[in-house]
Amino acid sequence: MTSFLVRRVAGALVILLIISAITFYLFYAIPRDPARAFCGKICQPETLALIRHNLGMDEPLFVQYWHWLVGIFVGREFVQFGECPAPCLGYSFATQEPVFGAIVDRFPVTLSLTVGASVVILAFGILTGMIAAWKVGQPLDKVASASSVIGASLQIYFVGPLLAFYLVDTMQLIPRPSYVPITESPLEWFTHLLLPWVVLSIIFTANYTRMTRSQMVEQLAEDYVRTARAKGMSNRAVFFRFAWRGAMIPIVTIFGVDLATLLGGAIITEQTFSLHGIGELAVRAVQNTDLPMLLGVTIVGAAAIVLLNIVVDVLYAFIDPRVRLG
Amino acid sequence: MTTVSWSGEPGTSRGPGPFLSVRDLSVEFSTEDGIVHAVDGLSFDLEKGTTLGIVGESGSGKSVTNLAILGLHDPAHTKIGGEIWLEGEELISAGAGTMEKLRGNRVAMIFQDPLTALSPFHTIGRQIGEVYRKHKGANKKDARERAIEMLRRVGIPQPERRVDSYPHEFSGGMRQRAMIAMALVCDPDLLIADEPTTALDVTVQAQILDLLKELQQQFGTSIILITHDLGVVANTADNVLVMYAGRAAERGTVREVLREPQHPYTWGLLSSMPRLNSSVDVPLMPVRGTPPSLLNPPSGCPFHPRCDYPRLAGPELCFAQRPSLSPETGHGDACYLTLGQKRELRTARAAGTASADDTTQSGDTVQCGDTVQSGDTPQDKDTAQTGDDA
Q1: CB B62 within 8 A of CB B27
Q2: Which residues touch B153 (CB under 8 Å, ≥6 apart)?
Q3: DSSP conformation class of B168
Q4: How far is CA A217 from CA A139, A248, B39, in A?
Q5: Is the peptide bond prior to A87 cis by the omega test (within 30 degrees of 0)?
Q6: Rounded distance, CA A295 to CA A68, Å?
Q7: Would you call A326 and B119 a contact, using CB atoms and an 8 Å cutoff?
């Protein structure tokens, strides 16, 4: 287990290094010059060169990348902005704020959104899938299956405003979505994020309903389930003690893959409800060609996904004893 | 449940009736293509403490019959007719609760492939123990003790340690032993073994069969042994039921059926397997053709399309009318040929294979079974040690 974790974390660092290198070169190779944006409308070549120098952009690309990389671990000094302590992801071109600080500020929003949506997805998806499998072929199964198809065809930017209009404006059931820190008021945190969670999870939930149902139906036809029945286990025990374990293995695997998509969905959801999360930061950074910010958001997002996938792998070993971490 | 007297039933005039009695059982599956008559009018009895071998090709209804005894068919797609009496209790009409209490407790089953038949997610000990807890109301600790005791009884080394292993950490033979331990944990009256040795190699096969015999002698369990291996039947069973297309083709004691087979299908089965005491040059004579579709079974005798003598009993009889087992008790078979004809044909077949001896030079017949009885295999011991070092 320990050696597994060490190897996986080492592997994750290599992956992040590759991702950061590729992203760095891609972003800095685009034809827009951030120095020119700083320089303003009337721009003297000397000023432009000075700004370039201050931004550290007059050096070769790999040297710039090296500085950026070293900055993460030991911090760095900017002519323009001064001291940037580790972990330093540079300063935003657009707002002049430290990238790392901006991300840390907004991280709880996106984390709350994604974790909450994950809970909704897994809880509701698996629950409805289980019900459908339990009542396979019966009306309840058909309702669950049909609504999962409808759910899967919906879009965040369509459902979001629609639900907000009815639930928030017309019926006034829930407050307008915003972020209240959980440390401030857990209840407010919950009610204000309820709508974004539901909207973000709708598409995924439907998928998990269908997957859980088909996996359960498949597992119930397995030999070991027949053995359990032959031992005199009740239907409920067969369902929840035996078949359930088998059905969860592919679900966990798919969820690991879906995490990246979920993070993407969080960006759209943040935009839909004007939540000030990392997604909003990313969108604004793209609009402003804010390279340090873009790079920072990308690498933090990648790190989150890689980390969560390690968690998923560990979880996998807990569900299936045949999987050995070692 | 009321006790039913069996004195009035045909063939059961001695005493209160057999331990298990299957009467005119039929099992039909509704599929997209139509109705499959998997078992069609099957009757047999099983006495306490004896072993009945059910033999037949794949799809002859052996497993379906036994799943019906346990009530394990999906009621949504299956129609079951007839009666199954277990010690005066009718099982087909019994409620779900009754069957749940019966399964694993009074009637237990072991399956062909112990790897897929055991849950990969639970330890061997838990899988054995939960049967004991369910039926005997034991607590966790007692169930674990019982599981260890059962593992020791079926010959698993270091049961205190192995009780916490998962099935994938066991070898094939050990898995089947664990499966048997699980089946016997509540001391069942009836054990149904569905091809228990098919997935195992020959040496382990013999060990498992010996183990079953030994446990039967110890606890007086009745056993239904489903197999397509007549060698297994010869070694293990008291009585034999040969099934073809969901019906009984022949029934009798092992001695009767194997020494004096009466049904042409049984002849085919016997001549399609090699024997140790016959020359390697004797060609095997398999039953020609393939088993019939049970969606649309043949008219008359279901075996007539594959039978070598369908016109001997009369021009139309075998094609038009279904034979039933006769005589009603003892050694019986479902064939229209007269006893005299059968005796003649059997002698002729024996001579035929003898004369074929001289003419053909086929060397591809297999001799097997000579490695049986070599004690605990090294493979078993080997895998017993691995798997805990993670």
Answers
A1: no
A2: B181, B184, B215
A3: G
A4: 16, 12, 26
A5: yes
A6: 10
A7: no
Residues of A in contact with B66 (CB under 8 A): none
Where are the domains positioned within chain B? Answer: 50-71+97-244, 261-359
Query: What are B238-253's pLDDT values in tens digits?
Result: 999 999 999 999 999 9
Q: Which residue has the higher pLDDT, B194 or B1?
A: B194
The Cα-based distances of A260 to A233, A257, A298, B38 in angstroms read 40, 6, 12, 50
pLDDT band at B352 (very low <50, low <70, confident <90, very high): low
- Position B135 scores a pLDDT of 94
**Percent of chain B predicted with pLDDT > 70:** 85
Q: Does B232 touch chain A (CB under 8 A)?
A: no
Q: What is the ipTM of this complex?
A: 0.78
C-alpha closest to that of B107 among B213, B193, B208: B193
Residue range B367-389, pLDDT digits in tens: 333 333 444 444 444 444 443 44
Question: What SS3 class is residue A184?
Answer: coil
C-alpha span between A193 and A177 (Å, rounded): 6
**DSSP letter at A98?**
B
- Tell me the CATH class for B50-71+97-244: alpha beta
Buried b (16+ CB within 10 A) or exposed e, B342-357: beebeeebeeebeeee
Please indicate if any CB of chain A lies within 8 Å of the CB of B284. Answer: no
Identify the pLDDT of residue B243. Answer: 93
The structural domains of chain A, with segments of one domain joined by +, span: 2-84, 102-319
Q: Which residues pair with B89 in a beta bridge?
A: B86
Using alpha carbons only, what angle is made at residue A179 by residues A173 and A181, rounded to the nearest 5 degrees? 115
Extract the tokens encoding B257. 């059926």
Question: Which residues, in sequence order, are CB contacts of A237 under 8 Å at separation 6+?
Answer: A228
A-chain residues within 8 Å CB-CB of B103?
229-232
Quote the CA–CA distance of B23 and B20 in Å, as a whole number: 10
Q: How far apart are CA A261 and CA B276, in angstroms?
A: 65
Non-local CB neighbours of B147 within 8 Å, separated by 6+ positions: B124, B125, B126, B128, B129, B132, B163, B181, B185
Residues 2-41 of chain B with CB under 8 A from chain A are none
Q: What band does A227 get if pLDDT is binned at 50, 70 and 90? A: very high
Nearest to A233 among B113, B134, B168 (CB): B134
Tell which residue, B198, B191, B197, has the closest CA to residue B223: B191
Q: How many residues does chain A have?
A: 326
d(CA B41, CA B273): 28
Q: If DSSP codes are grouped into helix, strand and coil, which group holds residue A219?
A: helix
A102-319 placed in CATH 1.10.3720.10? yes
SS3 B252: strand
Where would I find the beta strands (DSSP E) of A157-208? none
For residue B167, what pLDDT is reported? 93
Quickly state the pLDDT bin for B366 (edges 50, 70, 90): very low
Between chain A and chain B, the number of residue pairs with CB atoms below 8 A apart is 70
- At position B105, the amino acid (one-letter code) is N
Q: In A29-136, which ranges are continuous DSSP H helix?
A: 34-39, 45-55, 61-74, 99-134
pLDDT, tens digit, 9 for 90 and up, residues B148-169: 999 998 889 999 999 999 999 9
